[in-house]
UniProtKB/TrEMBL annotation:
One of its GO terms (biological process) is proteolysis. The active site is at H129, C195. This is Sortase A. CDD domains: Sortase_A (cd06165). Pfam families: Sortase. Gene3D superfamilies: Sortase. The keyword Hydrolase applies. Keywords: Hydrolase, Protease, Thiol protease. One of its GO terms (molecular function) is cysteine-type peptidase activity. InterPro entries: Sortase, Sortase_A, Sortase_dom-sf. It comes from Proteiniclasticum ruminis.
């Protein structure tokens, strides 16, 4: 009986050790597979997805990353909500963009926060989960610096932004995702949001970026590493 309990304790200990790693592997695998899917979409397919009425924008249903949530929601991805890619070369971020906020979308990429937003116009806010693993989701967002290039694409056009500010705000500061912020800035902007380490802190971390230019889609240009040149 003592041996049985000893084996049971060891098994339980190993489960506690490896469960977070399994969770992260599931998320990374989901992201990689979803990036491949959206990269193969035609611009016409993405335009069709942008018109989807299935997208949700209920922030109250979003939960922090958990083992059970990851395993349950990984299979619930609606590929008809994929509308592009978000790439930040300097922090090696390359994740899909989904239309709408829900747990499945946020476990596979970034998610739009308003029904009416358009790349390269007004304020384009995207939400993503914070992760301790910087290779997953918005885990590396806090490493983005002012001057870093951020690119969005709908597989027809690349929209290039340059980070101008990083800020932490209360979770009640919903004004920061509205178009009024772009009007105050004087040009189109991008707002990338994640929890400030945890949703329980009541704070949200934002990277704000100015829209600078757009050009025809190319996979090489999408991932090209470069610092923004003010003379461009």
């Amino acid at each position: 009986m003592k041996k049985f309990f000893a084996v049971l304790l060891i098994a339980f200990g190993l489960l506690l050790i490896f469960t977070p790693k399994i969770k992260d592997l599931v998320i990374q695998n989901t992201i990689n597979n979803t990036v491949k899917v959206v990269a193969d979409y035609t611009p016409e397919k993405i335009k069709e997805n942008e018109q989807s009425e299935e997208a949700e924008f209920d922030f109250s249903i979003v939960e922090d990353i958990s083992v059970t949530g990851t395993l349950l929601d990984a299979s619930k991805i609606n590929k008809d909500l994929l509308i592009g890619q978000l790439v930040i070369p300097n922090v090696k971020m390359n994740i899909p963009i989904f239309k709408g906020i829900n747990n499945a979308n946020l476990l596979a990429g970034s998610a739009t926060m308003r029904k009416d937003q358009k790349m390269g116009q007004g304020n384009y806010p995207l939400a993503g989960h914070y992760s301790k693993d910087k290779n997953i989701l918005f885990g590396s967002l806090m490493d983005v610096k002012e001057g870093d290039i951020i690119r969005l694409t709908d597989n027809e056009t690349i929209f290039e932004y340059v980070a101008y500010d990083v800020t932490t705000v209360p979770d009640t500061a919903v004004y920061i995702i509205e178009d009024q912020e772009a009007k105050k800035r004087g040009n189109a902007i991008l707002s990338l949001m994640t929890c400030y380490y945890s949703s329980s802190t009541g704070k949200r971390y934002f990277v704000m970026a100015d829209f600078k230019t757009s050009y025809p889609y190319s996979e090489d240009l999408l991932h090209e590493e470069a610092a923004y040149n003010a003379s461009n």
